[in-house]
Amino acid sequence: TQSTWGIAHPHFQGDATCFLFSLRPTMKVYNTTGYNEHFMYMNHGQETLPNGLGMGGQLDYFGWWLSSDYGVGHSRAHPSNTTYGSPQLSEETLFKLDTLEVYGLTDRATGQHQPSSSVLDTNLEVQAMLEIAGRG
Questions:
Q1: Is there a contact between 97 and 64 (Cβ–Cβ < 8 Å)?
Q2: How far is residue 82's CA from residue 78's CA, in Å, rounded to a whole number?
Q3: Closest C-alpha among 132, 19, 8, 9 to residue 86
Q4: Is 28 helix (H, G, I), strand (E, B) or coil?
Q5: What does the pLDDT look like over 105-131, one tens digit per residue?
Q6: Are 12 and 40 in contact (CB under 8 A)?
Q7: Which of 39, 54, 101, 135 is the most buried (most CB within 10 A)?
Q8: Is the pTM for the entire model greater than 0.90?
C-alpha cells in the first residue's frame, strides 16, 4: 500500500492500492472490490471500539484482524470479504500467532518515510508478488 497506518482517529483508512494476499493453499492476491472503503484499520487505547490492526470487511468481521495484545486474531469472511473479495484467510476463524513480521521503511538520513524507493525493490520474491497484484 502507498498509505501509512495511523492511530490518530480510530476509523478505516488507506486507499484502493491496498490488497490482501494468501500464500496457502495457493498464492493469490485480493484487490479491492469497490464495495466499500474499509481498506485498513488501526486503533489503540479505546474502550468503545476494537483495539488492534485489521484489513477489509467491517468491525469484528475483518479479512484479517490482530487484536491489541498481538497474540490472537481472526479472519471472518463468509462467504467472502466485502472489501477485498477474499475468503477466510486462516484455517480456523480464530487463530493465535506463531510469528509476526513487520516492516517499516524510512530514509536513513532523515528518518522520514521515503516512498520513491524501497529495500523491497531488490527482493525478487516481493517484486513477483507485487507484479501479480498489479502493483509492480
A1: no
A2: 9
A3: 19
A4: strand
A5: 565 666 565 555 555 566 677 677 777
A6: yes
A7: 54
A8: no
